[in-house]
Amino acid sequence: MKSKRWVLLIFVFAIFILIEGLCYLSLFFLDKKYGVQYDPNVSTLSEEQKSHLKKFLNQKKGERTGQDTVLGWINSSQVNSAGMRDNIEYDRVPPAGTIRISAFGDSFTFGADVKLRDTWEKQLTLLVPSIEALNYGVGAYGLDQAYLLYLRVGTEFSPNTVFIGYMSENIARNVNVFRAFYTRYYRDVIFTKPRFKVRNGELVLIENPLSTFDEN
């Protein structure tokens, strides 16, 4: 019996080493081939993050864009006057016969790494011209920030439907307050953010801890 137990333990250990080895080789390949690094639970700022932070702190008053007192950060480029990712302005009420969708969420909603015409919002409008999709996506947002942005502007343009994008990784973003200490992937996200806690069955907002320029 003892010999069988040892054989089983050795077998389990060998499987563990094999899986760990394959994972290590896969991460090594992703890093060397595509520059994708797995580096969770960071405790220090990268040089690139320090550079972004110094650049922001050295800006003159009135030039400090990107930071938001409540949400942490907002889009400061590629947006129209209402803060949507778009190159056109919209009337407050959609035209007759038009279905208007307001979309909130992270970089998948914003359409990071693709041109404006290739975002799913614009593609949806091309497929169904009677639909207007307003893009309020912001890169690196958690579900908490998307919800707070909806509370701020969600009804301003009289949408028929509100869409809040979510992906499984967002669950970690929702408990994180400083993206730079979450992963080095967010190289230029240098601001803190709010979050929610569940207390007595209700959501309670924990406000953005560093909400002004002077606090950073």
Q: What's the arrangement of strands in the largest beta sheet?
A: 4-3-5
Q: Could you tell me the number of beta strands?
A: 7
- The low-confidence parts are none
Mean pLDDT: 87
- Kindly estimate the percentage of residues that lie in beta strands according to DSSP: 5-15%
The helix/strand series, from N terminus to C terminus, equals HHEEEHHEHEHEE
- Structural class of the helices, strands and pairings? alpha/beta
Helix content: 25-40%
- Please, how many helices? 6
User: Compute the gyration radius: what is it?
Assistant: 22 Å
Measured between the Cα atoms of the first and last residue, the distance is: 64 Å
User: Largest beta sheet, briefly?
Assistant: 3 strands, parallel
Form type: globular
Q: Give the tally of structural domains.
A: 2
Characterise this structure.
- The protein folds into two domains: 1-38, no CATH class; 47-215, no CATH class.
- The mean pLDDT is 87.
- The protein is α/β, with parallel strands linked by helices and 216 residues long.
- The protein contains six helices and seven strands, in the order ααβββααβαβαββ.
- Strands 4-3-5 form a three-stranded parallel β-sheet. A two-stranded antiparallel sheet has the order 1-2. A two-stranded antiparallel ribbon has the order 6-7.
